[in-house]
Design goal:
With 122 residues, the chain is α+β, with helices and mostly antiparallel strands. The protein contains 2 helices and 5 strands, in the order ααβββββ. The chain has a domain of 83 residues: Copper binding periplasmic protein CusF (OB fold (Dihydrolipoamide Acetyltransferase, E2P), Beta Barrel). A hairpin with a 4-residue loop joins strand 1 and strand 2. It is globular. The protein starts with a helix and ends with a strand.
Length: 122
C-alpha cells in the first residue's frame, strides 16, 4: 500500500510538470538581461545595432503589442521562438500585419522586452 501511494504521487507530480504550459512571457531563464556596466558597455553599443529577423503572427493595435516568430535574438541571448513584444513609442508600426517579414531590435527594459526599432525585411 505504501509503495502504491508513493508511485501514485510520483506519477501525479510528473503529470502536472509535463502538463504545465511554458510561459512565453517568463524571460527570467534567459541570460544577458542584466544591467550594463564597465567593459560590457562597449559590447552593448555594438549590440544596439543588431537586428533580428522575424515574422509577425499577430498585431494587437489596442495594446500596441506584436507577436513575432523570431530567429535567435543575439543581444538578449535568446533562442528562436514565438513571443509577444511591446513597442517603444518611436517604434509604433503604422502598417504591419500578420505574415509580414520584419527586422527588429528588442531590448530588456526592467524585465519587459521592448521593440525599439522595427522595419520591413527586404
Amino acid at each position: 500500500m505504501k509503495n502504491l501511494i508513493h508511485t501514485t504521487l510520483a506519477a501525479l507530480s510528473l503529470g502536472i510538470a509535463l502538463a504545465a504550459p511554458a510561459s512565453a512571457q517568463d524571460h527570467s531563464a534567459h541570460t544577458g538581461h542584466g544591467a550594463v556596466t564597465g567593459a560590457s558597455a562597449a559590447a552593448s553599443a555594438d549590440q544596439a545595432d543588431v537586428l533580428t529577423a522575424g515574422e509577425i503572427t499577430r498585431v494587437d493595435a489596442r495594446t500596441g503589442k506584436l507577436t513575432i516568430r523570431h530567429e535567435e535574438i543575439k543581444n538578449l541571448d535568446m533562442p528562436p521562438m514565438t513571443m509577444v513584444f511591446a513597442l517603444a513609442a518611436s517604434a509604433q508600426p503604422a502598417t504591419f500585419k500578420p505574415g509580414d517579414k520584419v527586422l527588429f531590435h528588442a531590448e530588456d527594459k526592467e524585465g519587459s522586452l521592448i521593440i525599439t526599432r522595427i522595419q520591413p525585411a527586404s
